[in-house]
Design goal:
The strands form 5 sheets. Strands 1, 2, 3, 4, 5, 6, 8, 9, 10, 11, 12, 13 and 14 form a 13-stranded antiparallel sheet that branches. Strands 18-17-19-21-20 form a 5-stranded mixed sheet. It contains 22 helices and 25 strands. It is globular and about 95 Å long. The chain has 778 residues and is an alpha+beta fold. Strand 5 and strand 6 form a beta hairpin. It folds into 3 domains: 197 residues, no CATH class; 271 residues, Collagenase (Catalytic Domain); 247 residues, no CATH class.
Length: 778
């Protein structure tokens, strides 16, 4: 095989790289002209893995890197620049930054020939480099020590593309591992050999660069940036920008006129109807915000043509992605790290979301075989399409540069950047109404987001205008709280809870959810499943109803040990951190403890009677309750999981630590000992009789008692609670043990368990921690 290439496939002088034909071979030969000139490099997967647990989806793009080619000793090197630590300023300042922080040479190859000012090099190895980081991702997720197999990986030479806007080098990458993890074994035909297709993009830096807009923590945008050691001042080295797409007016003297390149998102034609129409409709909600911000016809969403190459980095795409179970949808913007300009928006909508919301709606309405089946199925479809409109707007919002706002339940109208639970209510005649399950259209926060990120302010100082926008939003009560302060067991903000319905009063929202749950369970039957589905799946539908109140429960729990605060800068006014009022905390504690009573935990008799084990060649998944009863449904496990909703929320060590301090500062606030006492009182010191009409009511209440006891002992087993918190909990347990010794067999068993545990016998823990089936995403 000759090392000398034939004429270039692409040799236009303005092309970023030349693609040269390889006579008689299958190498990817590149003609490089630009050395020492930085460009953007990113890698996307056009063919993914298909696992919800991994996120390595079709259409996923990797992080943007800054790279350059260098020519040294007859070899072409690809060097990654340090984009997070650098220095700007004069020549000396820039040099000091470059020499202080390391770069990374990630590929090199010998020069084959020079021709017409271009250096010809074999770029096959470049295309076969795992720039997306698939192997690293799998290793971090404990899915196996995968490495690229060069003998089974190939540059897709005929599909490579180049032009003035950049170069795309696709490759089929095969990675091998001797011991693949369970997520891969579930979806890959031969999991020791994993094959994906990577699209490597090399793109010139935008010229001229988009004027950067300084990031403000109360803006609702993503803050991207770096440390600039050449501009060190009292403000520190940190520099952050607001990501945004470029919107330039055709006529610079008329900023309110049309723009040169509107923001267009193209929806994958693989999305089936009527979901496709719903996705387009929801995505186009943002048009109104751009119009109000002064941009006419600057944004739209439309269905892509079959001929559109959505692997092109210049295309903002909305892809339909299939995976093996419940998973997240994603919106991302690929940005120029110098300015925050979004080069490309990539959205991935998980098709399984339709299945999940359909399952919830069918469980609620039990439509099949009913006299009013058509009306009920129409309600199911309405709920599903409403959710898909909201989901499309939400994920495109991320690709426009916007973060979540999990406090918008308290706005006049919720933001599409929130995580919504469908709002279903009970009608006066005892039916269910989901006609307003999801808000349609943008909320005021969404209009603020577009105005703050994209707005133009001719004749006015930009920082002053943006500060005015933020102040107006604050005056209108538009609270903004993002991920770290709203998600997870350690989140503390009282008003920022994920997956809650748009009812500002957490107590009222919980009551509403419990009422819907009660009606839906009363109507539960085989009608909750399409006629062609095997009856074992009724268990999954029963889980959805039994745990229907879980998110509203979390909102009430957030009040206990909860605080309120906002984001801002030191030079701005702010209230700091303010605890939730003591009386509200005590009300929330009593309300949640009440959910541990058997009346809220027991499944109705007719529900239990309707359940059958999965049919042959079907099985339970993580969406089901666990069973320790063999093949059949295990009511004990259902009770344990439902009770664990309360204990997991209330007995998180971080919450107990917050309560310990709040109680010390204000004794009116319930302390950790009060929380434990209240829970133990409900399940072990219940004074009124369990209702006789509950199936196995006494056993249900006793089961809840063991769940609570196990959870309290688990807190003490953790090393997270402070000493004073431990002391309060241990004291309450000792008192309970003394009381229970005078009771029956169960009480004496519990007393012995407590005493043994406090004496250091870890084996005394009463059974495994209940597993609660997943509830998100909805």
């Amino acid at each position: 095989m000759s090392d000398l290439p034939s004429a270039p496939i692409s040799a236009a002088p303005r092309d970023f790289l030349e693609l040269c034909a390889d006579t008689g071979g299958h190498r990817l030969l590149l003609g490089v002209r630009r050395f020492g000139e930085p460009f953007l490099l990113t890698a996307a997967l056009s063919h993914g893995v298909g696992s919800s647990a991994l996120g390595l989806d079709r259409g996923k793009a990797g992080k943007v890197k800054v790279a350059e080619f260098r020519l040294i000793a007859g070899r072409v090197l690809l060097m990654l620049r340090n984009k997070h630590h650098l220095a700007t300023g004069d020549t000396a300042a820039v040099r000091a930054g470059e020499e202080s922080f390391a770069g990374s040479v990630v590929w090199s190859a010998p020069v084959l020939r020079e021709r017409d000012g271009a250096v010809i090099v074999d770029g096959t190895g470049l295309a076969l480099t795992d720039f997306h980081g698939v192997a690293d991702d799998l290793r971090e997720r404990e899915q196996g020590a995968y490495e690229t197999d060069p003998t089974a990986s190939f540059a897709l030479v005929e599909e490579a593309r180049t032009g003035p806007g950049g170069t795309r080098l696709p490759a089929l990458l095969t990675l091998r591992a001797p011991a693949p993890g369970p997520a891969l074994r579930a979806v890959v035909p031969a999991p020791r050999s994993l094959t994906v297709v990577q699209q490597l993009h090399l793109v010139p830096l935008p010229d001229p660069p988009l004027p950067a807009r300084r990031y403000h923590p109360a803006s609702g945008g993503y803050g991207i940036g770096h440390h600039d050691y050449g501009a060190a001042t009292r403000a520190g080295t940190g520099t952050k920008f607001q990501p945004r797409h470029r919107l330039e007016p055709v006529d610079p003297t008329s900023p309110a006129g049309p723009v040169r390149d509107p923001i267009v998102f193209y929806v994958d034609p693989a999305v089936p109807e009527p979901v496709r129409t719903a996705v387009v409709e929801g995505g186009n909600w943002w048009r109104d915000a751009f119009e109000r911000a002064g941009f006419h016809d600057a944004y739209r969403v439309e269905v892509a043509s079959e001929r559109l190459d959505d692997n092109d980095l210049g295309v903002n795409s909305v892809r339909w992605v299939h995976r093996d179970g419940r998973g997240w949808s994603h919106g991302q913007g690929l940005t120029d790290p110098r300015t925050g300009e979004i080069i490309c928006g990539r959205v991935r909508l998980g098709s399984q979301r339709v299945e999940q919301i359909t399952a919830i709606a069918e469980a609620l309405y039990a439509p099949y075989g009913r006299a009013d089946e058509r009306e009920r199925l129409a309600a199911v479809e309405h709920l599903v399409l409403s959710r898909m409109r909201q989901l499309a707007a939400h994920e495109i919002g991320h690709a426009l540069g916007f973060m979540h706002n999990f406090a918008s339940t308290h706005h006049p109208r919720p933001s599409v950047m929130d995580y919504p639970h469908p709002r279903v209510t009970v009608t006066p005649d005892g039916g269910l109404d989901s006609s307003n399950a999801y808000a349609q259209g943008l909320g005021p926060w969404d209009h603020f987001l577009v105005a703050h990120a994209y707005g133009r302010f001719p004749g006015e100082d930009e920082e002053t205008a943006l500060a005015r926008l933020r102040q107006t939003a604050a005056d209108e009560g538009l609270v903004y709280i993002a991920d770290e302060d709203a998600r997870g067991s350690e989140a503390a903000h009282a008003d920022a809870v994920v997956w809650v319905s748009p009812v500002p009063d957490a107590f009222a929202a919980l009551d509403e959810a419990l009422a819907v749950r009660r009606v839906a369970l009363e109507g539960f039957s085989r009608a909750a499943l399409p006629p062609g589905r095997q009856t074992g799946e009724l268990e999954e539908r029963a889980v959805l109803l039994q745990l229907y109140h879980r998110s509203q429960l979390s909102a009430v729990a957030r009040l206990i040990g909860g605080t309120r605060y906002g984001y801002g800068l030191a030079g701005e006014e702010g209230a700091g951190t303010v605890p939730v009022a003591a009386d509200v905390q005590r009300q929330a504690l009593a309300r949640l403890a009440d959910l541990l009573r058997a009346e809220h935990l027991a499944l109705p008799a007719h529900v239990l009677d309707a359940l059958t084990p999965p049919a042959i060649r079907h099985g339970r998944t993580s969406e089901y309750f666990d069973t320790r009863a063999g093949r059949v449904f295990d009511p004990f496990s259902a009770v344990e999981a439902t009770a664990a909703l309360v204990t997991e929320a209330l007995l998180d060590p971080a919450r107990l630590n917050r309560l310990g301090w709040q109680h010390a500062a204000d004794p009116a606030v319930p302390g950790p000992g009060d929380v434990v006492d209240t829970l133990l009182d409900t399940v072990w010191r219940r004074h009124d009789p369990v209702p006789a009409d509950l199936v196995a009511g006494e056993a249900v209440q006793e089961t809840a008692g063991w769940v609570v006891l196990r959870a309290v002992l688990g807190v003490l087993k953790s090393d997270l609670p402070h000493g004073t918190v431990r002391a309060r909990i241990s004291g309450r347990l000792r008192r309970l043990a003394e009381e229970l010794r005078e009771g029956g067999d169960t009480e004496r068993e519990a007393a012995g368990t407590i005493t043994a545990f406090l004496a250091g016998e870890d084996a005394a823990l009463p059974g495994p921690v209940p597993r609660v089936p997943p509830g998100a995403p909805i």
